Known about the structure:
Helix content is 35%, strand content 27%. By secondary structure, the chain is an alpha+beta fold. Strands 3-4-5-6-7 form a 5-stranded antiparallel sheet, with helices on one face. Strands 1-2 form a two-stranded antiparallel sheet. A hairpin with a 7-residue loop joins strand 6 and strand 7 (156-163). The longest helix is centred in the first third of the chain and has 53 residues, at 17-69. Mean pLDDT is 77; it is low at 78-100.
Amino acid sequence: xxxxxxxxxxxxxxxxxxLMLAMGAMVIFSILLMNTNRSMLSSDKKQVExxxxxxxxxxxxxxxxxxxxxxxxxxxxxxxxxGQTMDGSQVPETASFSFVDMVTVTWEEExxxxxxxxxxxxxxxxxxxxxxxVPGPTDYQRIDxxxxxxxxxxxxxxxxxxxxxx
Length: 166
C-alpha cells in the first residue's frame, strides 16, 4: 500500500504552508534574539556609566577625607597644598579669591576610566545657614567638591562643613 503524501517515511510538502510556518518561526526567534541582545547591551552600557560615576564619587570623597584631616588654618590658607593624585604626584593647583572670600582649586585627575576634572570651592559660612556664603573669616567653612568628566552625564558634587573647633 502506497500513500501519496509519504515518501521514504517523511511527509512531502504539497504546498508552501510548512515552509512559511518555519520562516515565520525563524523571524519570531530572531526578533526575540535581537531584543535580548539589545537589553544586554543596554545593561552593559548602564554598568559602565555606574562604574564611571562611582569613580567620580570616590575621587570627590577622597578630597573631602583629605580636607577632614587638615587643620582649619591649613584650609584657610590659599597657598597650602591641596593633596596628591592617586599615583602620589602633587596636584597641579590654581587658586583664586572672590568677594565672598572663596577659594577655588581646580585640577585634573587621571584614572582607569579616563580623565576627571575636579574643582574644590571653599566658602565661609555661618553655623545656622551652611548653604549661604558669607564674607569671612568665620568659624565654619563649607568645602564643595565637584567632579566632572566628558564620559558621565551628571556632575558629582559632595559638600563638607568644617568647623574651627573640630
